[in-house]
Write a structure and sequence with these properties.
Blueprint (H helix, E strand, L loop, with lengths): L25 H12 L8 E6 L4 H8 L6 E4 L2 E5 L5 E5 L9 E5 L8 H10 L7 E5 L19 H10 L9 E6 L14 E6 L2 H9 L7 E5 L2 H7 L8 E9 L2 E8 L6 E9 L3 H12 L4 E9 L7 H4 L6 E5 L3 H7 L5 E4 L2 H7 L3
Parallel strand pairs: 1-2, 1-5, 5-6, 6-7, 7-8, 9-10, 9-12, 12-13, 13-14, 14-15
Antiparallel strand pairs: 3-4, 10-11
Length: about 350
């Protein structure tokens, strides 16, 4: 130790006793009051549900479901300016500060996507606690890959649009999508959104239980893609797989594996557009001895009234679809062989997660 080293000078001020916290200045009180005006952190068991006009019936059905949640339907004014662009107003914007909010969307009609995106982008910025987007049908899911240069994978485009939804006070947006065409599409979404992929298959299983010949039911897939997508839901059933083969300029449906003879065959797929593949698949199955045919598609798109191909035929005993595509529901409701199964209960339970 250096004996010549000098000690540091004593402090010029020493406290006489334990220090007291300073009084909270009036400015801090003003900041706290302003923060509280944004709304307390909401009860997570209460959800405020906004919706587009096409989904009004489904939204109120979701709110009526017996769940652990209290779901409160909320309104948006969907007016238009004289030039046709949307004139939008979110009702209850101050009421939802600090609350947990969801929006039920329908992107079936490209003409209404812009106005819905405008609301979807605005809600998280209204000081809400969390935001959930419910998009039962992801309409560009079948355009998920490029087979030749120049093709545009619009599934990626829509996923990018949703990935840019602003974060709420609680973080990234959650989105609920039913039976997306390919599960790998989850990787098209960015880090600002968390996709939750749900399925409508349990609704079909409930319907199969009500069939008088349920012990004779086998599940059929119109192609290998559908088999890979849904096989795990039907391990308790015998299965039939069809496939498409090219013959010149035509694509013919043939039976690849399984035995439909004497069975009630239920064809399962994620969506139906024109219904051509289902009809051809049904013909093959009937030719191989199927005693009855039914079909289930989560999303009944049916552009240009293609559902008429089935209402005027007795080939199918049942054709189950869900209410994910509202424009189809109004056209097929009450018309054989169609039966509409509601996703309301499945959505309400998904909101509990």
């Amino acid at each position: 130790r250096d004996s010549n080293a000098t000690s540091p000078p004593p402090p010029t001020w020493m406290p006489e006793g334990p220090s007291k916290p300073p009084k909270r200045p009036a400015m801090d009180e003003a900041k706290r009051a302003r923060r509280d005006s944004f709304g307390p952190w909401g009860d997570p068991s209460i959800k405020y549900l906004y919706y587009c006009p096409q989904m009004k019936e489904l939204a109120h059905s979701i709110a009526a479901q017996p769940t652990k949640l209290t779901i409160c339907p909320m309104e948006v004014s969907w007016a238009k300016f004289p030039d046709g662009f949307p004139n939008l107003f979110v009702e209850g914007a101050e009421e939802i500060r600090g609350k947990h909010v969801a929006f039920l969307a329908s992107f079936n009609n490209p003409d209404t996507i812009f106005e819905q995106i405008s609301v979807i982008y605005s809600l998280p910025k209204m000081f809400i606690a969390s935001f959930t987007l419910i998009l039962p049908f992801f309409p560009t899911g079948t355009a998920e890959r490029v087979e030749r240069e120049g093709e545009v994978p619009t599934a990626v485009t829509l996923a990018r649009m949703l990935s840019h939804i602003p974060m709420s006070r609680g973080g990234p947006t959650s989105t609920i999508i039913f039976d997306i065409h390919a599960l790998q599409e989850r990787f098209y979404f960015g880090d600002n959104i968390t996709p939750c992929f749900e399925t409508g298959i349990p609704l079909l299983l409930e319907q199969i239980e009500t069939l008088p010949d349920k012990s004779d039911v086998v599940i059929a897939y119109p192609d290998e893609g559908a088999m890979k997508r849904f096989h795990t839901f039907f391990e308790a059933f015998d299965e039939v797989v069809c496939t498409k083969v090219r013959q010149g300029d035509k694509r013919l449906v043939t039976l690849k594996e399984g035995e439909p003879e004497g069975k009630h065959v239920v064809i399962v797929d994620d969506l139906v557009q024109s219904g051509g593949t289902l009809i051809e698949c049904g013909k093959v199955l009937k030719a191989r001895g199927a005693k009855a045919l039914s079909a289930f598609c989560t999303h009944g798109v049916f552009p240009n009234d293609k559902h008429e191909r089935f209402t005027g035929s007795d080939e199918f005993d049942n054709f189950w679809i869900t209410d994910s595509c509202p424009q189809t529901v109004s056209r097929v409701q009450g018309r054989a062989p169609f039966k509409v199964l509601s996703l309301a209960g499945r959505i309400a339970r998904a909101l509990e997660i």
